[in-house]
Every structure is written in structure tokens, then in C-alpha cells.
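Dear colleague,

Thank you for sharing your sequence with our group. We've completed the structure prediction you requested, and as agreed, I am returning the results in plain text so they can be pasted directly into your records. Please verify that the sequence below matches your submission; if there's any discrepancy, let me know and we will rerun it promptly.
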Amino acid sequence: MIGPIQNSNPQTPQFMSSLGKLMKQAAKMQQQMEQIQAQLAARTVEATSGGGAVKVVAKCDGTLGSIKIDPQALNPADAQIVEDMILTAANQALGQAKEISNAEMGKATAGFNLPGLA
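Please find the predicted C-alpha cells below.
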């Protein structure tokens, strides 16, 4: 009669314990990231161009919140200039929002070297 099979790898319980800790850390990090993403969606930055003729508000989740144009800047002959001012202000606002988002997400992933979460 053959006796019970014994685990020949004494490190298995430690591995399982470490794996469990890692899973708990990952779940905690995911929860933190979800909270940060919700906060970022509510956080805004503002940029202007054309001496304030165009104002763009961007949300830190990467979307635009609003665009305001001074009515005096709406001369049909100046359409190209106004378009350029909108583009400039939008890119500035989105750039600021991305910097904030990256900084906040970096706090949640600090200590983890995970590809794609930089």
C-alpha cells in the first residue's frame, strides 16, 4: 500500500502566502486607481489664448469641459485665427490635465513596475 503523497516543495505555502498578499495589494491598487479616476473626472484646468479671447476648460480625465469665445473675436474674416486660438488653448488645457492625471495615477502605482501604468 502506498502512503499519502507529501508535498516535496516546502516553499509552496510561502509562495501561496506571497501570492495572496500580492493579490490583496493589486485589489487595493485597483480600488485606489478607480477612486483617483473618479476624482480626476471632476477636476478641471483652464487655458486661454488670444489674450483671453478663447478659454478652454479641460477635465483631468482627458475630456474638454467647455470652450468660451469672446464675441469680439468672431469676425468671419478672422475665422482661421480663432480656430488656431481654440486649438492652442485646447491643447494647453489637455496637456495640463494629462500632467495632473499622470501624477495622480503615479501615486497609486508607486512601487509597482507595471507596463502601461506609467
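Summary note from our side: DSSP finds two helices and three strands in the chain.

Kind regards,
the structure core
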